[in-house]
């Protein structure tokens, strides 16, 4: 039974008077869980206003009464930013009833979506207008665009189009005092004062609540082609990337690394997923090209393969011959996290390093992990961005539960190495509650002091998602 | 004679003890002027440390003694951000002795430059490594990269590559308390806390001093082609842009609008600049394509021209047949600001509007100006970004001095219209001191309160470039 504080009772009384009945949602368990099962949250209630004014009323009331507020999108975050387990039970502020695509301006290439819009619905609306909204990630069927922005989501197309931050031109948001920022600009250039937009993006609900966003749309590639190449090692993979860049420049939409281990996990847990090679290669890369101009991307893939083969950078390869096969290649890549889940990671790491440091990082990481025990490593991810999911698993025949006591040491060893390589211990998932200590440990101290000062300045009562990103003060 | 406050004297005494002699620069008049002659600043001294530690020592000392500091780059800013005319004489902190290219990592596509590096030198270093640093603007021979970042500079390649903000991966900076943020990351993805980088970028020296930056490099286009098309009106120009996008997608490097008036100004003041058409067309666009992949950009330009001609969107056109002619086209475009200067604008406006609102903005603007008097308008700029330089001139045979009393009314009328069109009154030049009142007038009140709170939080003594962006408190 959640303990509801007197302040929270007062808040609910006030909101019962000011919000419509429909804004109150049953507090089902889904609101208090997160995908990796690391946290179980609590809450005094879930409210879901359907207007920005409703959201402002909630935040104003919570601010008046100093009740914590946890903004809630699709609930798909992987670092516990959406669940608060400690302290007085917060109010969950869900954006699920603000799902409208408010406008779509084709000549300007701008779509305005409310924060609760499902990512896939935003993609579909863009496609229906003949354009592309390129943010694309595994959870796109259930994550919401407000959450994508609050966490600066990444995904498979960052290499070409950037992360959520790069796709956003303007925001409507409720600030921690309940004021509404009407900032839905549709401008490519606007140098009028400090960049509040990028400050809210990636702040994981700790500096305000995003209620709507104007988003950049792109021309759809006319022709796309996808291939999987077997490569001897990550350095060769990077050299293939350089070859591809020299051949087609910015037309590389995705360049994803897969390891032998990942393909083995698929064979073991999801044999229905078709694999392109009879024997899983040590390493492989999924390359996707999209041409908006002239030329044939399939031919370009063949040219890249030949150039790489001559230089011993690839040993085998498959270019998809149909849209069905392209989809199959992507299913392979996108099933890896599911296979990981079935095997059960002891510790997962979402890291990035400079491209030039990447092969060394992987080699040293594997040595470090081998020094800790007979663990298996599945290292895969967005190679073109230097973003690896470096996940550590128990030896075959063992369950992760047997190694709970090693989890901390493994994570620490991987993150120490990332830090040595001048990398990031959270490339795309954010800090949430999972990595608050990592941010303290590895973050620059002048920067951390500035972040704390900003938090205190914008949220002096500390009501917005307390305990996420920065330790509650 | 500048009046030096007792605090400033104390500061100079302290710096004389702690900084090397070479860090003190003679206070020549160039430091106190700005390109448009709108302000004359004052200063108690100019110091130019050659290390980040030296910059930190200066800021720490200034903070201890509450002496204002004005960071100084190339001095090319157009809104008076680099000159302080009011209040006690500040210390000018010049980055002119921090000009090193610290590193260039080709596989990662990252160059680290100190803040005082001249933009052109950064471009050249990238080119020498076979890569492209795409920031490009008229002042590139004298502006410094730190100033470009502090003002989030734009220029002619924003359409394709983004503005200075989009080209920066990490910063080294001295914060207003004199602490050093070592943030020279070379990562494409890094979601570890609030976006301090983008907060400093565009803050015009009011939140800290950028001392170095890691910058993104791009593949150089293999083949480039440039054309000038005569178009009947801005709406047709936008339709040509849409056609070009459909034909070559993201390969459009620049799409610049020029008006009849601008070409007339060139004929009048710079007859040596070669013009492509015997009779200057009412409107024209300079289109540049750069292909990193297959295809011939000249052919693509011809295809675009034909498609546009069939639809009556262009009446005439010239595709450059040599690199010399390409350079000539760019000279034409880039001489327009010089011609403007010779004619003498009563009021210049650096504005942006959503692309779909742009033709209406120009039509309404011309009516508004006609209602104010027999003025001439030269409207030109970065059409593809919705960024127009909408500049108002005296009637032929008159000097701008005759209309000094109309300047305020003209600017107000143009900016009111921009605001109605949901645009920005400073697309690429920033707020500086020139547009502080505009920001107050047109800015969202919740956002402005947040910006002030951020300024107070990071610079509680108000020493960093006081009076720029936000009125001094």
From TrEMBL, chains A, B:
Pfam families: FAD-oxidase_C, FAD_binding_4. Keywords: FAD, Flavoprotein. Residues 39-220 form the FAD-binding PCMH-type domain. InterPro entries: FAD-bd_oxidored_4_C, FAD-bd_PCMH, FAD-bd_PCMH-like_sf, FAD-bd_PCMH_sub1, FAD-bd_PCMH_sub2, FAD-linked_Oxase-like_C, FAD-oxidored/transferase_4, Oxid_FAD_bind_N. The keyword Nucleus does not apply. PANTHER family: BLL6224 PROTEIN, D-2-HYDROXYGLUTARATE DEHYDROGENASE, MITOCHONDRIAL. Belongs to the FAD-binding oxidoreductase/transferase type 4 family. This is FAD-binding oxidoreductase. It comes from Meridianimarinicoccus marinus.
